[in-house]
Amino acid sequence: MFGYNTISIDQKHRVSIPAKYRVDFLKTNETEIVVTKDPQYPSLKLYKGSEWKIISTKLQSLQGLDPVVRNLQWTILGNASVTDFDPNGRMLILLPQELRNYAQLDNKNKISFVGMGNKFEIWNTDNWNLRQTGGTLATEILDVVLPSSIKEMSF
Amino acid sequence: MFGYNTISIDQKHRVSIPAKYRVDFLKTNETEIVVTKDPQYPSLKLYKGSEWKIISTKLQSLQGLDPVVRNLQWTILGNASVTDFDPNGRMLILLPQELRNYAQLDNKNKISFVGMGNKFEIWNTDNWNLRQTGGTLATEILDVVLPSSIKEMSF
DNA sequence: AAATGAGTTGGTCTGTAAGCCGGATTCTGT
DNA sequence: ACAGAATCCGGCTTACAGACCAACTCATTT
């Protein structure tokens, strides 16, 4: 599913996934959704359960003594938050503190939800233009240092 | 199981494993958990009993003439602390002094618990934040010195 | 304008983390 | 060797976060 939406976080830090995406999830018999950090930008990534299985398995299989690899594993695996779908169709997910910090979502009540096919992103609306301009310094460094085995992977 | 949690150590140096991870352990019929030093960073690693069997076997099989290898064996095997699960479901593990020292957990009451799938890590929260923002020189050096037979192993 | 469906908020309730307390065991000093 | 002290360990209790349930409001469509 594609598209840009503005959705809201309530005081309990809950976010409800827009209905049109939900339909897409149900079509493919997904039962869970996973939220984690985007390693490149101050934003969050949402994966369908099935997508997540692939990605996390790949990442775990990478050998862990390389500091760059470990860093990636920490960021992506170490911050993942798995949520099952609401039985009555609704889809409310709770964003953990650490993730809210990372994506700078605190003290906000409106955030950006971006559909990218299999993957979805959650942004602080103010940061969204980072995507356009090229991101943080960390991104550039990461890009240079990253082993090609990882560069080829899709997050 | 994945995710980042802040948990507390009590005055008796006990740590209780968050429930969602516990569930995961029970699902795979694990009966014990092993805590040991992380050879690279001032932090601790938790393994499921089954995972630990594999890792320790691998490590023992390495020939001990290389001083780097012996060092690794000492750090990982020599400090392992095995704990059985609480029969009534609770999962309180006691962190031995040596391990607390190593991970710089004394005089702290909050620590970081990081789930990485099969493995789990325990960090002094202050150090964890450092890891996120950058690396230490020691890590890079370790990476150069390490024989490739070890680099290929995953801890 | 009414009805249906989606988004949002609020309340309740359960499971759990963490503190507390008391008994046991080890350690120390005389 | 014995008594007192200090540390260790298990059970119990409680405050609170998160899951669940439900209602209300807003929007959209016919």
Would you write up a description of this structure?
2 copies of one chain form a homodimer. The first copy, chain A, has 155 residues and is α+β, with helices and mostly antiparallel strands. Chain A has a single domain (2-140), classed as Transcriptional regulator MraZ domain (Chemotaxis protein chec), CATH 3.40.1550.20. Helix content of chain A is 37%, strand content 26%. Chain A contains 7 helices and 8 strands. In chain A, the strands form 2 sheets. Chain A has a 6-stranded antiparallel β-sheet. In chain A, strands 2-6 form a two-stranded antiparallel sheet. The mean pLDDT of chain A is 83. Chain A binds a DNA duplex (30 and 30 nucleotides) through residues 7-8, 10-12, 14, 16, 18-19, 86-88, 90, 92, 94. Chains A, B: It is found in: Cytoplasm, Nucleoid. Chains A, B: Its main location: cytoplasm.
Question: What is the topological layout?
Answer:
The structure is a homodimer of 155-residue chains.
Chain A: E1 2-8, E2 14-16, H1 19-27, E3 32-37, E4 44-48, H2 49-61, H3 67-76, E5 81-84, E6 92-94, H4 97-102, E7 110-116, E8 119-123, H5 128-133, H6 137-145, H7 148-151
Antiparallel strand pairs in A: 1-7, 2-6, 3-4, 3-5, 4-8, 7-8
Chain A binds a DNA duplex (30 and 30 nucleotides) through loops.
Protein name (chains A, B): Transcriptional regulator MraZ
Subunit structure (chains A, B): Forms oligomers.
GO molecular function (chains A, B): DNA-binding transcription factor activity; transcription cis-regulatory region binding
What is this entry, summarized?
Chains A, B: InterPro entries: MraZ (IPR003444), MraZ_C (IPR035644), MraZ_dom (IPR020603), MraZ_N (IPR035642), MraZ_sf (IPR038619), SpoVT-AbrB_dom (IPR007159), SpoVT-AbrB_sf (IPR037914). Two copies of one chain form a homodimer. Chain A has 155 residues and is of the alpha+beta class.
